[in-house]
Design a protein that fits this description.
Helix content: over 70%
Oligomer: single chain
Strand content: under 5%
Number of strands: 0
Radius of gyration: 15 Å
Largest sheet: none
Length: 170
């Protein structure tokens, strides 16, 4: 994997790892329990999406899976951003779950634990910086932009007929 593709792969993993922190941070002005509920819902959706992505990866082309999940993720995060700004905590928690479920499946398409850990560390750093600056919604915007930009670029840089990984092998 070239350094450019490694960076794109890292950026494509960032939306899923950043969402629980971003959802909690966006709802923190509403209340701590609402922020915690949104973060737990996003984390739950992200864990469930791993199994769903593996199942879908066996049944559809990887490029289609990545692009569809990126589009659905961006829509869910934009709606989550609106719900958080309107202080609609119940709707925001449901949209956090939807965002977690639709997080781009790069970690399933090309397993790379080191990039997963790096994406998690980057998500924590982004959230801490935004929290210290009282920029509550910035991580949600960053997650949506990362999915909207990096996933299509990653798909375009990979060969159209290239098989990324064999889903039957661990």
């Amino acid at each position: 994997m070239s350094p450019g593709q490694r960076l794109l792969s890292l950026t494509a993993r960032l939306p899923g790892t950043l969402l629980p922190f971003a959802a909690g941070l966006a709802l923190s002005p509403t209340g701590l329990l609402y922020a915690l509920a949104a973060a737990i819902a996003a984390l739950t959706g992200w864990w469930i999406s791993q199994a769903a992505s593996r199942w879908l990866h066996r049944r559809m082309h990887t490029h289609h899976l990545l692009l569809c999940s990126a589009v659905l993720y961006v829509v869910a995060v934009i709606l989550l951003l609106v719900a958080a700004e309107q202080h609609a905590a119940g709707t925001a928690a449901a949209l956090s779950l939807a965002g977690g479920l639709t997080a781009p499946a790069e970690r399933v398409a090309v397993p790379h634990p080191r990039l997963d850990r790096t994406a998690l560390a980057a998500a924590v750093v982004i959230s801490l910086i935004c929290g210290a600056a009282s920029a509550w919604s910035v991580p949600l915007v960053a997650a949506a932009l990362a999915a909207a930009i990096s996933v299509p670029l990653l798909v375009m840089t990979r060969g159209a007929g290239e098989k990324l990984s064999d889903p039957e092998t661990p």
